[in-house]
# Entry
Amino acid sequence: MRITAIRLERRALDLDPPFPAAWDPNPRRDFEATLVYVETDEGLTGIGSGDTMEGFEAYEHLFVDRDPLDLERHVRALETIAFHAARYWPLEAALWDLAGQAEGVPAARLLGGAQERLPVYASTGAVLPPDGRAETALALREEGFRALKLRLDGTRVEDGLACVRAVRDAVGDTMEIAVDLNEGWRMPGDTRPPLDGDVIRRLVGELRELEVLWLEEPLPTSDPRGLAELRAESGVPLAGGEMTRTVAELDACLEADALDVYQPDAVLAVGLLRAKEFALRALARGRRFTPHTWTNGIGLLANLHVAAGVGGGPYLEFPYDPPTWTPERRDFMLAQPLRPDADGYLSVPDRPGLGIELARGH
Ligand SMILES: [Mg+2]
# Structure
């Protein structure tokens, strides 16, 4: 089999009302998704999505005419490009989609086949007042979610803590609560200084009392020593690594025992194969692996296949915060939005490859 072309398609959805993502100073009024199609001389087409693929056209020739199943070679080529330009991991997702189709099995089987479904946590995205967030937590529990993640605005830590307290009071011990400080990386142009160490220490003290599942990204992953110290002195489980640019950065955290939960996103951070390899190293050391999935339905699928392949957990991230972030918005490029079953599990689709069924052109 040979790759004949790699085609990009940009789809967009208007967001009205806008989505006020906690980590983005600008409310989002539209949502773009770039689809990658790897076309072959045997009629099979692999599909991926996630990162923007901006500027990829200049590198298409490095893949055309090659065997799409030479995955290790393609991953190395993508790593050389990532050094000089952008991260084109959605192309790797498309290659796994193709590999699964060629073998007639879900990609998760090729990535280890450890699990067929994973329990999910509702990953909220907006910052709400405490009573509003407590109400939505109860609604999520009613829908079958056993865990949720709350966003803390680093510039309003006290308000965020009040929110976590209100949710804990509302749900008691019937739900697990993860908290994301989003201090690991910044949106372009967001030049605020890092949070003050005393603020972070006071925060982790309170979160320990509230028995959170984990605190995510209190510091950048480029500071493994700082994370390791905070983790050791606070006793609060720490999570991070969603947007790391290199495997070395993740390995440095593992070496320093900086995190309890590792979250490299397969279509944003280090790709699917390297995420799988790293996950196995982390799991062998008794740490957890559960990738960030906050792109779109195809990115969520790619991460589901990696997490199910290696045996990730304890929960898979399911971006979900109605009314502003719904499966219909997140998965607008899919024929059917992905949803957990009544037990709160998301299943690997029982179809070859990533199991993508596209909506008609948007
Ligand atoms: Mg996060």
User: Anything to note?
Assistant: The chain is about 35% helix and 20% strand. The chain has two domains: 3-104, 110-347. Residues 180, 182, 216-217, 242, 292 surround magnesium ion (CB under 6 Å).
